[in-house]
Amino acid sequence: MDKLEILLKAAPKITREKNLNNLIEILSNLAKDMIEVDRCSLFIIDEQKKELYTIFAHGVNEIRIPMNSGIAGHVAKTGKTYVTENAYRSKFFNKEVDKILGYKTRNLLAVPIFDSKGKVIGVYQAVNKSSKFKSSDIKLMKLIAEFAAAAIENMMLYEKIKELHKKSLIKLSKAAEYKDPEPPNHFIRIGFISRLVAEKLGLDEEKCEILLLASTMHDIGKIGIPDRILKKSGRLEPDEWEIMKKHPIIGYELLYDEESELFQIAAIIALEHHERWDGKGYPFGKKETEISLWARIVSIVDNFDTLITEKDEGEPWSLDMAVNYMEAMKEKAFDPEIVNIFLGNMDKVIEIWEKYKD
Amino acid sequence: MDKLEILLKAAPKITREKNLNNLIEILSNLAKDMIEVDRCSLFIIDEQKKELYTIFAHGVNEIRIPMNSGIAGHVAKTGKTYVTENAYRSKFFNKEVDKILGYKTRNLLAVPIFDSKGKVIGVYQAVNKSSKFKSSDIKLMKLIAEFAAAAIENMMLYEKIKELHKKSLIKLSKAAEYKDPEPPNHFIRIGFISRLVAEKLGLDEEKCEILLLASTMHDIGKIGIPDRILKKSGRLEPDEWEIMKKHPIIGYELLYDEESELFQIAAIIALEHHERWDGKGYPFGKKETEISLWARIVSIVDNFDTLITEKDEGEPWSLDMAVNYMEAMKEKAFDPEIVNIFLGNMDKVIEIWEKYKD
Fold first, then answer.
1. Counting Cβ atoms within 10 Å, is residue B344 exposed (0-12), middle (13-18) or buried (19+)?
2. Within this chain, do residues A126 and A189 fall inside the same structural domain, yes or no?
3. Which of A154, B85, B216, B321 is deepest in the core (most CB within 10 A)?
4. Is residue A162 a part of any domain in this protein?
């Protein structure tokens, strides 16, 4: 296969790859094949620790070196390419790394990696070419390093916006908490446990992730319920109860978005999480599979979590009591199949519950 | 420059490009240079309209053709590469397009573009090579098409998550509206007008975008104020007023996030949007440039919008009255420089205000 083909085959993989480690492995293999060297390694600058560390290196685990040490350190500092045909004669070469790895570096080509603003963010090294490095190798390595920088930056940008998006959703859930002080982290637990149940039901990974985020917002509609009802300590009067029962519809209206699957699922969960398998729930009295799968999952998770969690008033139920209740409510409040799956994975449920207890 | 170099130079540009039209132009130039043809065009399938349309084509504007017409239609349907050395003899060729463009297609190579799930999403065409297409050209074009598909898909994913993120923030602002029924779209107008003022102040584009989103959430803290105070129609008692004055702090606590610049700015706006230039505001009585620039902008925009907008009680002020008030409050409530910029761009402020009036 000629070099052009090698590169073109790698390009779409690089562009689509969403995992940093995989990405760097693909890039390093690319560099290895194109420059025809024995090994490649990519060092990234850790500004806080003043170190350089490899996010990928052929044949070795992570290497960490002080910021200004070795050839990589020299290149990171100067932002200039460095080539040596005899590493042990280079005044910058750090022999210690070879000693630790049990490897013999003969020759070495190191190029800096720049972000789009021109700041050095790392160093790409190619080690042990059987012949000497040619000027075309250096050119090639520089171009691969540029491609690597673009791909890494792109991926980090994507990760950043995804992270931000999750944060917004958590804040949305938290906003609802201001009105309805559920036990701390209630909504986070609902998210993680609902995702677990969805996984055990065999739903695909993307849908499980959506459920994790969407389910946290199921009670957001309580924002629209007046304090005098939401915070009343005694029993609600019938007319007050009618108003309270509107929180699923308010949540639906707030969340629904015709262009976003995430918000559609979040909206349907908000709308239907108080429906019951036997049709005696609210707001519409839907029953069995008329209720969306999402809401049937969240209803089980939400109820169980509420039972076993410490509240301001009243003791939490013991685990046994809560499990018995869930059993007893099969086909009454809950989808029996999902209850079975839920109870069948109680160890994992409790693991999540413990982790996010407060 | 050899082909390998052409490709490697294009790769980081392609990877970093965030604008679809620019991306396709880069890709088409790449294909043009590597296959050595006169023109390239990329057709995308519009499922809803059952059409194929060019998102880029050398030398022409958008072309739209029915889904099954022409060589592009044939390739889209079959998912197979098609080559002809004499287009006018091909039974699939659509002569009409040449007629409209005043162009003479001699030979043509068309390859399908697949998404990562293997579905055809478009067709990449290379037109008029001076010699015949070689098998290596076909291979190259297929690989470029794969690269194009990956880049397009990647970009669309990024756009989608960005869009979702914006939606979450808007929903967060809307959630606050449930408690404090501001005039409709108040928070959206605050966002767009604040961005306008920031632009006129010469802030960079990224910061202006952040302000657009961050400012919409300035009143989110009202979620934490009891209804009896928030919705009281008469004057607040001193103790009620003390509680009301906590909404900036509640907003800050809800929004602040140490890893996100957006939420940091949103938090500081929520915290300081009732501070005054003369130090007589709340919650801390900060003055002049002790108050963040963001909050000084939003305070002006928020006050002005409230004055001129129809409310349940009381008439809105006329534009003249509101402008006079802003003038009069310079150096009292507001940063005088920002007021000057705000009033100096009144035509654009009103344009946004009209657009999002209801």
1. exposed
2. no
3. B216
4. no
Number of separate domains in chain B: 2
Q: Which ipTM was obtained for this model?
A: 0.71
* CATH number of domain containing A238: 1.10.3210.10
A151 neighbors B151 (Cβ within 8 angstroms): no
Range 257-276 of A in CB contact (< 8 A) with B: 257, 259-260, 262-263
- Where in the sequence is the domain holding B206, given as residue range(s)? 165-355
Cross-chain CB nearest to B168 (options A146, A165, A179): A165
Rounded distance, CA B242 to CA A98, Å?
A: 68
For tokens 């990329």, the residue is B42
Cα separation, B153 vs A96, whole angstroms: 44
Contact between B7 and A5 using a beta-carbon 8 Å cutoff: no
| Residue B160 is assigned to a structural domain of this protein | no
Q: What is the largest CA-CA distance in chain B?
A: 89
Looking at the fold, whether B111 and B219 belong to one and the same domain comes out as no
Residues of chain B numbered 227-246 and touching chain A (CB < 8 Å): 227-228
- Rounded to 5°, the CA angle B36-B42-B44 comes to 165
Asked if A69 and A184 sit in the same domain, the reply is no
**B307 and B283 fall within a common domain:** yes
* CA nearest neighbour of B333 among B358, B307, B300: B300
CB contact under 8 A, A171 and B3: no
- Joined tokens for residue A275: 């429906």
Q: Where are the beta strands (DSSP E) in B3-132?
A: 37-46, 51-57, 64-66, 82-84, 108-114, 120-129
Strand order in the sheet with A82-84: A64-66, A51-57, A37-46, A120-129, A108-114, A82-84
Please report where in the chains the tokens 């000057």 appear, as a residue: B340
- A212 shares a domain with A104: no
Q: What is the pLDDT along chain A (358 residues), one digit of tens a residue?
A: 577 788 778 888 887 887 878 888 888 888 888 889 999 888 889 888 999 888 777 777 778 888 888 999 999 999 999 999 999 999 999 888 888 888 899 999 999 999 888 899 999 999 999 999 998 889 888 888 888 888 888 888 888 888 888 888 888 888 777 776 666 688 889 999 999 999 999 999 999 999 999 999 999 998 888 888 988 888 899 999 999 999 999 999 999 988 888 999 999 999 999 999 999 999 999 999 999 999 999 999 999 999 998 776 678 899 999 999 999 999 999 999 999 999 999 999 999 999 988 7
* A259 contacts B175? CB cut-off 8 A: no
In the block, residue with structure tokens 């699922």: A265
Query: Of B95, B125, B155, which marks where a domain is finished?
Result: B155
